[in-house]
Write a structure and sequence with these properties.
Two copies of one chain form a homodimer.
Chain A: H1 3-37, H2 41-52, E1 57-59, H3 60-67, H4 71-83, E2 87-91, E3 99-103, H5 105-130, H6 136-141
Antiparallel strand pairs in A: 1-3, 2-3
Helix pairs in contact in A: 1-5, 2-5, 3-4
The structure holds a DNA duplex (30 and 30 nucleotides).
InterPro entries (chains A, B): HTH_MarR-typ (IPR000835), MarR/SlyA-like (IPR039422), WH-like_DNA-bd_sf (IPR036388), WH_DNA-bd_sf (IPR036390)
Protein name (chains A, B): DNA-binding transcriptional regulator, MarR family
GO molecular function (chains A, B): DNA binding; DNA-binding transcription factor activity
DNA sequence: CATAAATGATTGCACACGCAACTATGCCGC
DNA sequence: GCGGCATAGTTGCGTGTGCAATCATTTATG
């Protein structure tokens, strides 16, 4: 068993750690956001991503990449948020196939409510993961990759 | 805006990076495993976790934690794998509430087929992520946390 | 120009998931 | 032993998701 086999095992180990930490954080966020502001994690991700965009509008495809969701799931996700009045569809003039989504005022207001819930829950989840020997190294590594 | 606010933003940034990388890898693994050996990522995770256990048996609850799945999802996941003959339920004598799951010979055989698919796909996904500026730091950090 | 290929987004369908309620077994204090 | 409580696992139900097929619009090709 040579060096190549070791690197395979190291990669798998890193992936398991990544998946475990992701599952822990997402589970905590899901519970906190749904019970407090009635938003799932992906729904929050959409609102948050929109709020970071210039002019607060994005194409469907960008939303799909931002949320790691399929096109069909993206469509229905936007449907749900639009029916709740949190965002609006705006078809862009230059390419009439494309559709922009924009945050509405209620959407921005709900996001303002959701952000502290999200941030505090994330902090609690990370401190919780920090106490697990398997996850601690990854938790410590996260803040170091802010700047390239 | 002081130091505290910065750390909140740094945490959120790290979480977005983690989620993005997780989504990319899981998507690649899902496609590769389903098309080649007809296994989802969680199903592979179960078989892999079982193969790492002494005696190849685990309780349902352990499987739930290993896969970040709810109890109900764990039950039905084991149902699917049992119906395919890849594992068997074995109720343990000391605590008759608990149920052990064991890999069968076909389960081990299928896992042997699936592992190279999994490993090669993981490597491709990581090199792919390595070329994305926002994901590269995390990809590079992963191998460093094997031992801590 | 007309027609084919490509792209953005949506719908039909089957399925995996979480939550809440439920059953069954184990663990107490009395 | 016996009621009360906790724990392990399973089921009913509603819902979010991916895949494949589809429609609409843009771009390329003859």
């Amino acid at each position: 068993m040579g060096i190549a086999d070791d690197s395979v095992e190291i990669r798998s180990q890193g992936w398991r750690t990544l998946a475990a930490l992701h599952g822990l954080i997402e589970g905590e966020l899901e519970r906190a956001l749904t019970s407090n502001v009635n938003l799932s994690v992906v729904e929050y991700t959409v609102l948050d991503a929109l709020s970071r965009q210039h002019g607060w509008h994005m194409r469907m495809q960008q939303l799909g990449r931002a949320t790691a969701l399929s096109p069909s799931a993206t469509t229905r996700l936007v449907n749900r948020l639009e029916e709740r009045g949190l965002l609006t569809r705006v078809l862009c003039a230059d390419d009439r196939r494309g559709i922009y989504t924009e945050l509405t005022a209620p959407g921005q207001a709900l996001l303002a409510d959701a952000r502290p819930v999200h941030d505090e829950t994330l902090e609690r989840a990370l401190t919780q993961a920090r106490d697990m020997p398997e996850l601690a190294p990854l938790v410590d590594a996260l803040p170091t990759l802010t700047r390239a």
